[in-house]
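User: My collaborator sent over this chain with a note saying "see what the structure looks like." That's all I know about it. Can you take a look?
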Amino acid sequence: MARVVIDVMLKPEILDPQGQAVQRALPRLGFDGVADVRQGKRFEIELEGPADEAALARVREMAETFLANTVIEDFTVRVEEPADTAGSGSSR
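Assistant: Without extra context I'll predict from the sequence alone. Here is the result:
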């Protein structure tokens, strides 16, 4: 079993009102020094088999036709390595 991550972001030339709202709110919350914020989407997909070239091609097709609006969004596809759960803690 493999995990594939698809990150979808608005293209740089597309206005991002949610990102702008977050950027404006951060200084009011005490988080200074942030020059820009872009908001996006992340999809984690568990494959039934290995993340071979055929499976990744299918995931890219899925991202291009369903998960991202390629007119205004870009996407990246990557295989995520299994997390080492021994001794790991939450960063939240």
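A starting point for your reply to your collaborator: The radius of gyration is 17 Å.
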